[in-house]
């Protein structure tokens, strides 16, 4: 019995949902994405028991408004995107005749600048990090120096690291491999960390139980460091990623290069950094990584 069936969803809708989720896995969507989509579909199909081919768009909008109308715009739009994607899948597979959502339902979200560390905050982080374990120091330095995602850092194996050349191979979104580059500081920290690393353990970063660190574990390390450094905002792995990108921009890197370094397939994703005043960044990072 599937997870969806256990939650009281009618058999036909359950079958369509499971088929859709399998298609996401076949398309190499990340495990976190599939879990997120599954939870949203579970809630929707549990509340809306009518067969999908009998459901009206107004019923979907009513459910969306009641359950997510007062939530943050990003949350509302995420749920709408999941339902739209599921609806399109069902149409393509000829399970339903028309889409159950409307594009006009989407709310407009003001584009915000990426959250990154300024020069003073970065100095606070580096000073406070000296009090952390060698593992944590190596991990934080890698995030700031390479711009890799926390999931990419968590999935790193010792054999993926070419410390002599300051490079590593990571598995990004869509299971795509790419090379990342890191600083001399990271190389020194990694060499020190690996001196006490279990030789029979393939994972690079380990938790206190000697197992591969989780993405949540990495998040907790960055958050703890941010609090210890008394930053005015929460420090997250993604903030480290944005800091890497803005550092590169301040040093004159092209957006195309930044996008490739971050593992973005779409250059437009990297264009958000072009909205940050270059003069401000140059001043902030003129001494960073020199």
UniProtKB/TrEMBL annotation:
One of its GO terms (cellular component) is cytoplasm. Residues 11-91 form the Core-binding (CB) domain. It is found in: Cytoplasm. One of its GO terms (molecular function) is DNA binding. Gene3D superfamilies: 1.10.150.130, Intergrase catalytic core. It comes from Candidatus Desulfosporosinus infrequens. Signal peptide: none annotated. InterPro entries: CB (IPR044068), DNA_brk_join_enz (IPR011010), Integrase-like_cat_sf (IPR013762), Integrase_catalytic (IPR002104), Integrase_recombinase_N (IPR010998), Integrase_SAM-like_N (IPR004107), Tyrosine_recombinase_XerCD (IPR050090). This is Integrase-recombinase protein. Belongs to the 'phage' integrase family. The keyword Oxidoreductase does not apply. Site-specific tyrosine recombinase, which acts by catalyzing the cutting and rejoining of the recombining DNA molecules. One of its GO terms (biological process) is chromosome segregation. Residues 112-286 form the Tyr recombinase domain. Keywords: Cell cycle, Cell division, Chromosome partition, Cytoplasm, DNA integration, DNA recombination, DNA-binding.
């Amino acid at each position: 019995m599937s997870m969806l069936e256990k939650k009281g969803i009618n058999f036909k809708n359950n079958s369509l949902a499971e088929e859709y989720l399998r298609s996401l896995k076949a398309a190499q969507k990340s495990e976190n994405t599939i879990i997120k989509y599954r939870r949203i579909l579970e809630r929707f199909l549990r509340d809306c028991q009518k067969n999908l081919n009998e459901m009206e768009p107004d019923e979907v909008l009513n459910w969306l408004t009641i359950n997510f109308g007062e939530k943050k715009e990003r949350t509302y739009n995420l749920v709408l995107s999941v339902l739209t994607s599921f609806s399109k899948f069902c149409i393509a597979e000829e399970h339903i005749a028309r889409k159950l959502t409307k594009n006009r339902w989407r709310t407009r979200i003001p584009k915000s600048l990426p959250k990154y560390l300024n020069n003073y905050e970065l100095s606070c982080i580096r000073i406070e990090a000296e009090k952390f374990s060698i593992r944590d120091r190596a991990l934080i330095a890698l995030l700031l120096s390479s711009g890799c995602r926390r999931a990419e850092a968590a999935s790193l194996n010792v054999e993926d690291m070419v410390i002599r050349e300051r490079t590593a191979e990571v598995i990004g979104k869509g299971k795509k491999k790419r090379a990342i580059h890191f600083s001399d500081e990271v190389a020194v920290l990694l060499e020190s960390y690996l001196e006490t690393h279990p030789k029979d353990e393939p994972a690079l970063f380990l938790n206190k139980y000697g197992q591969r660190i989780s993405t949540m574990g990495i998040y907790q390390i960055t958050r703890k460091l941010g609090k210890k450094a008394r930053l005015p905002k929460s420090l997250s792995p993604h903030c480290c990623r944005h800091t890497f990108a803005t550092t590169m921009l301040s040093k004159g890197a092209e957006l195309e290069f930044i996008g490739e370094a971050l593992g973005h397939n779409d250059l437009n994703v990297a264009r958000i950094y072009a909205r940050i005043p270059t003069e401000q960044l140059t001043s902030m990072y003129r001494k960073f990584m020199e």
